[in-house]
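Submission checklist for the structure archive. All mandatory fields must be present; incomplete records are returned to the submitter.

[x] Identifier: GntR family transcriptional regulator
[x] Organism: Streptomyces hazeniae
[x] Residue count: 128
[x] Sequence attached
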Amino acid sequence: MVEFRIDRRSGVATYVQIVRQVQQALRLGLLEPGDKLPTAREVVEATAVNPNTVLKAYRELEREGLVEARRGLGTFVRRSLGGVPADSPYAVELADWTRRARRAGLEREDVAALFAAALDREFPEGDG
């Protein structure tokens, strides 16, 4: 099951954070078709966000065809986003690099900027 982490200082709408975290879990294989998402009540209890925010995120995921709500049963994953498993060599290498960057004194924002710049170089706009 996915555990949502909400960063209220990020400037990113809370429902978007929930959507992105589900998408990331789908890409990493942490959520698979048939898996049940936490109920809105469970998310509210864990994150202290408004229930309507959780429902908005789940509706967006449903609109994208990633999940389906089953009345009385909950919200279930419909399809994966492929991607790479969380335990792939790429994930391990990236985690090692991130630890080295942190030990070298880089802040989270520094690492994010470096990573974003590398992504922009390797995956120019419109290059999938």
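[x] Structure attached
Curator remark: The first strand starts at residue 67 and ends at 70. The two ends are 28 Å apart (CA to CA).
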